[in-house]
């Protein structure tokens, strides 16, 4: 199993350049396969939307939590590292222009030597979508089309597209991602729609906040959708969020995870390194 690490939002100065670079180098030196970022362009001070990953319905990412743009942040730490993969977990796809995102993602992938893992979701905050002047209600349909748009731009020498939302004829988007098939796309989400999206389009699936029987159900939905589209479900890499313990790693492995992601929970890099060294010894080296 591979291991990913989420930056220490809320507890560390993630937007400070020296901290960001040092954190990324530490993760790489400790043997983590990937470093993961989150995204909210804006957070409403007060919101009616329900956070789906906590029974309280409230997100730990309050308006006071600093959240740098994930692609710019990953570009910065890419220059400070050489091997670790650079993941968005997840980027709110329907809030972005798909042509611009295709350009940004391909550029980061090319400059980093093919290290980008583009994790995408549809978002849960209606207030954020409205502030971005995007429609919240059709965000799933637009996310599906955005993926098709990006893959068309990455793969076709001269690209044309005629969709419900996006239309263009004979355009070229350079540079191209390192991998011929384009940037790796990981579908995030906890719903049946997310599972179907992963089956249709995903190189990976990141079912956030889901475990047990519900996870089993989502994996069946994903696999059925993949087979219906002529895809191999086993080729869709499963990433699961866990905690820094042997028991969590064993549970995730039993559920089929190929990658375990944990959150860094200390903004002091000295203390954090000691915690992660224990995790490496107790979990990573025995996986």
Uncertain runs: none
Distance between the termini: 6 Å
Query: What fraction strand?
Result: 15-25%
Tally of distinct domains: 1
Known CATH architecture:
Alpha-Beta Barrel
Main β sheet profile: 8 strands, parallel, barrel
Give, in order, the helices and strands. Answer: EHEHEHEHHEEEHEHEHEH
Shape: globular
* Mean pLDDT rating: 97
Description:
The protein has 287 residues and is an alpha/beta fold. The chain has one domain: TIM Barrel. Helix content is 38%, strand content 17%. Strands 1-2-3-4-7-8-9-10 form an eight-stranded parallel β-barrel, surrounded by five helices. A two-stranded antiparallel ribbon has the order 5-6. α7 links the parallel β8 and β9 (237-241). α2 (70-78) packs parallel to α3, α3 crosses α5 (139-155) and α6 runs parallel beside α7 (212-228). The chain is globular.
Primary descriptors:
287 residues; alpha/beta; TIM Barrel; 8-stranded parallel β-barrel; 9 helices; 38% helix
Short overview:
With 287 residues, the chain is of the alpha/beta class. Helix content is 38%, strand content 17%.
């Amino acid at each position: 199993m591979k291991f990913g690490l989420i930056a220490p939002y809320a507890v560390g100065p993630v937007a400070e350049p020296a901290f960001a670079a040092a954190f990324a180098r530490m993760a790489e030196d400790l043997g983590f396969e990937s470093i993961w970022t989150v995204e909210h362009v804006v957070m409403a001070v007060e919101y009616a939307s329900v956070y789906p990953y906590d029974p309280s319905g409230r997100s730990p990412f309050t308006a006071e939590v600093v959240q740098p743009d994930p692609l710019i942040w990953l570009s910065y730490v890419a220059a400070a590292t050489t091997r670790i993969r650079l993941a968005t977990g997840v980027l709110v796809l329907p809030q972005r222009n798909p042509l611009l995102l295709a350009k940004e993602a391909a550029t980061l992938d090319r400059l980093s030597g093919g290290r980008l893992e583009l994790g995408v979701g549809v978002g849960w905050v209606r207030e954020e979508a409205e502030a971005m002047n995007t429609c919240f209600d059709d965000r799933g349909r637009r996310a599906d089309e955005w993926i098709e748009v990006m893959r068309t731009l990455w793969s076709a020498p001269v690209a044309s597209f005629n969709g419900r939302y996006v239309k263009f004829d004979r355009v070229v988007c350079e540079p191209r991602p390192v991998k011929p098939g384009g940037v790796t796309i990981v579908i995030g989400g906890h719903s049946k729609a997310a599972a179907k999206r992963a089956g249709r389009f995903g190189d990976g699936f990141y079912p956030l906040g889901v475990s047990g029987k519900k996870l089993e159900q989502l994996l069946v939905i994903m696999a059925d959708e993949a087979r219906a589209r002529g895809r191999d479900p086993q080729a869709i890499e499963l990433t699961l969020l866990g905690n820094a313990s042997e028991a969590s790693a064993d549970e995730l492995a039993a559920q089929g995870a190929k990658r375990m992601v944990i959150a860094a929970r200390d903004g002091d890099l000295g203390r954090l390194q000691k915690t992660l060294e224990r995790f490496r010894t107790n979990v990573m080296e025995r996986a």
